[in-house]
Design brief:
The chain is mainly alpha-helical. It has helices at residues 12-32, 50-53, 61-76, 82-117, 122-133, 136-140, 149-166, 170-181, 186-201, 203-206, 216-232, 236-244, 246-265, 275-299, 306-333, 340-362, 397-422, 445-474, 477-499, 519-526, 534-554, 568-600, 607-614. The protein has 23 helices and no strands. The two termini are 52 Å apart.
Length: 615
């Protein structure tokens, strides 16, 4: 590269900002559940003050994301040709977009149709919805993409920017002009004037539609931000001025935000054709962006690390999964009429933890990684890598595959329960037991019974993985065999119970699954000699204590009357979540340990044998 070319060193501050902005997006969507604006589903609680509250992030969040996305594309261009960059963008964006439109978005749309249009529920209702959406008439109306519109726009803006980049010297001239023009206070003044102008001239006519061919205000805003981010990478004078004016920008944003909220709240806020409102909006928009970029550049530019690496890779799958999980969670939780604060906290936890759980599963399955926006594992071609068939298998690969089943089993069980509840009209989570989802009163018991049957088999397979992992780490054959046997019995109890749906007395074979409560203690016993697993041991101890407490409460051994007919369902949900969920976490932690040991000592033999040989 010539000396004037921008540096290709990674900017960790932009990674942190991108991760933070997507995290705020999830919080924002949870907030919309309680807002008065149109959204997919709403809580029974709505609050008028949400009109003003969403202005905390609404003016600048997406604009900042487009700016950072443009900068990220610029870093891709330093050692690639335009054709290579276009191919990389296609491989990264198109598979998730198609997968999301066919699999993830229809779930949201179906729930919204049930909620707002009285569409039939149950498995038959969902099948009918899918037929309608993807029929000729449905496709003629367009394929809904919901939150995936952002991917459509990033793809379109990438094409536009790559075409500009192909023109020799054009991007350099744009960057040089920006560097010359945005000097000193003009870094704040000129972009604010531009944002005010498009807010006054374009927004009243076009609004924000998120429809690519008719969203001209959004293009004037977001495409400009994308190209701006692409052009200023390496223009250090602009970044120095952002750092220099970061406190001024923060002060301007702090003044503009309450004024903007007052303009929304007060009936006179639209006076003078909305020009004062547009001026305050543009001021808050750019001042907040400059403050974030300035503080980020000053304090985060060189702060990388494993946490950032993890979150950066997880962001795209989290973005894809979060809204479907949130909409489904609202639909399932809303009938309980929880207090607003408790419900909102529950939705936040379910959305974040569920999205991270999806990421942890999909990143381990090479065949579907690109569908979730992840690069193919180890740089392998996708969808098929014939060369991989001739490579030697990594150490512990069989044990780790069995543990991967243990990670997936709780997710399958939770998904099946959520789907079965959605297919059971009027199911009361407070008073009804989960077994009733597979009983005679359920409209589609096959969802629950079939899913739990498969999950039981997976639990048994995972138990073999647990036993073999313990043996590999400690050479304790008896401990490994006992652990595997407990899991196999528990899995057999789960699967067998579905063959005799409730209220058949033989359904109580499910009690065999309760033996898994002993598994944390058995794992602690088997891994006692390992001093390098403190997190796993703390987790197993905490899980055993929690399960013991839930057992004595639900069996009325202490605090009699705490569990009653009006709330027994929620206690059972909590108990089942802990009883099943801990298996996935423990399997993941053991999988990480086996991977570390495989990297340290790739030769054959167990870990204990290798350690003994070293002594």
């Amino acid at each position: 590269m010539p000396p004037s070319a921008p540096s290709s060193a990674r900017r960790y501050d932009l990674d942190w900002i991108r991760v933070g902005a997507f995290g705020l997006l999830i919080v924002y969507h949870v907030g919309l559940v309680y807002g008065v604006y149109g959204w997919h589903v709403h809580s029974v609680h709505t609050f008028e003050w949400m009109r003003e509250a969403i202005l905390i992030t609404n003016p600048w969040r997406l604009t900042l994301l487009f700016l950072v996305s443009g900068a990220a594309l610029r870093f891709m261009t330093f050692r690639r040709t335009p054709r290579q960059v276009a191919r990389a963008r296609f491989e990264r964006l198109v598979p998730p977009l198609l997968f999301g439109a066919v699999v993830l978005v229809p779930i949201q749309s179906w729930i919204e149709a049930m909620d707002k249009a009285g569409w039939p529920n149950g498995l038959a209702g969902y099948a009918a919805w899918m037929v309608r959406e993807f029929s000729f008439s449905g496709l003629a109306d367009g394929v809904p993409v919901n939150h995936l519109w952002f991917i459509v726009y990033i793809a379109a803006y990438s094409v536009v920017t790559i075409l500009l980049w192909r023109r020799p010297g054009l991007i350099d001239r744009i960057g040089a002009w920006l560097e010359k023009s945005l000097v000193g206070p003009r870094l704040l003044i000129l972009p604010i004037l531009y944002l005010i102008a498009i807010r006054i001239l374009l927004f009243p006519w076009f609004g924000v539609t998120n429809v690519l061919h008719w969203d001209w205000y959004n293009h004037a805003l977001s495409l400009a931000a994308f190209i701006f981010g692409f052009s200023i990478v390496g223009r250090e004078s602009i970044w120095r001025d952002m750092e220099r004016y970061r406190w001024v920008a923060l002060g301007l944003a702090a003044v503009a935000l309450p004024i903007m909220m007052a303009q929304v709240w007060h009936p006179g806020g639209r006076a003078f054709w909305g020009v004062p409102k547009a001026m305050v909006y543009g001021l808050d928009q750019w001042a907040t962006i400059v403050a974030i970029l300035g503080f980020g550049s000053r304090h985060l530019r060189s702060r990388g690390g494993p946490v950032l690496t993890y979150l950066t890779e997880a962001t795209f799958p989290l973005y894809l999964a979060h809204q479907t999980i949130l909409v489904a969670a609202v639909w399932i939780i809303r009938p309980a009429h929880l207090p607003a604060g408790l419900e909102a906290l529950s939705l936040l936890l379910i959305t974040f933890l569920g999205s991270f759980a999806v990421y942890e599963v999909v990143k381990r399955i090479p065949a579907i990684r690109p569908l979730w926006g992840l690069k193919p594992a180890d740089g392998r071609p996708w969808p098929l890598d014939l060369e991989a068939l001739r490579r030697p298998a990594a150490r512990y690969h069989r044990r780790r595959r069995l543990l991967a089943v243990g990670i997936a089993a709780p997710l399958l069980a939770l998904t099946v329960v959520a789907a079965a509840i959605a297919a059971y009209p009027g199911f009361d989570n407070a008073t009804q037991y989960l077994s009733e989802l597979g009983g005679s009163t359920a409209q589609a018991p096959i969802i629950f019974n079939g899913g739990v049957f498969i999950a039981g088999i997976m639990a048994g397979v995972a138990g073999i993985g647990f036993g073999l992992a313990v043996y590999a780490l400690t050479e304790k054959r008896i401990a490994g065999a006992v652990i595997a046997a407990v899991f196999v019995l528990a899995g057999a109890g789960m699967s067998a119970s579905t063959l005799y749906p409730w209220p058949d007395p033989r359904h109580m074979v499910i009690n065999l699954a309760l033996g898994i409560q002993l598994a944390p203690v058995l794992l602690l016993w088997g891994l006692a000699s390992r001093r390098d697993l403190p997190r796993l041991k703390i987790f197993l101890t905490a899980i055993f204590v929690i399960m013991a407490c839930l057992t004595v409460v639900t069996k009325h051994m202490i605090f009699p009357g705490t569990v009653n007919d009006a709330n027994v369902g929620w206690w059972e949900r909590a108990y089942a979540l802990v009883l099943v969920g801990w298996v996935g976490v423990a399997a993941w932690l053991l999988d990480r340990k086996l991977l570390q040991e495989a990297i340290k000592s790739p030769s054959g033999g167990s870990v204990a044998q290798v350690a003994a040989a070293g002594e």
